[in-house]
Design brief:
Layout (H helix, E strand, L loop, with lengths): L10 H14 L3 H13 L6 H11 L7 H14 L5
Helix pairs in contact: 1-2
């Protein structure tokens, strides 16, 4: 990290940040950086979020539920450990 930021907080807010940082076993600075990343999207999306966005864009045709249910049941019955 190469940039420094100074933020002035009232005592109560800083005390709550210190408590939260202790619970997470991290520093107040890490807590603030994480909050900035979450609030303003400063970090790239995590894998789950990226996958959600990708899948939301796809025109997925899941077909008829009755047919899908039959396919799932058939696959389950053919599984090697099916009883």
């Amino acid at each position: 990290m190469t940039r420094r930021l100074q933020v002035l907080l009232d005592e109560e807010r800083y005390r709550r940040l210190e408590q939260a940082a202790r619970r997470r076993r991290s520093s107040v600075a890490t807590l603030v950086r994480d909050a900035l990343d979450r609030t303003y999207g400063l970090q790239g999306p995590d894998a789950t979020e990226a996958a959600d966005r990708f899948l939301a864009r796809l025109p997925l045709d899941v077909g008829d539920w009755t047919e899908a249910k039959r396919d799932i049941a058939g696959a389950y019955e053919r599984a090697p450990d099916a009883q």
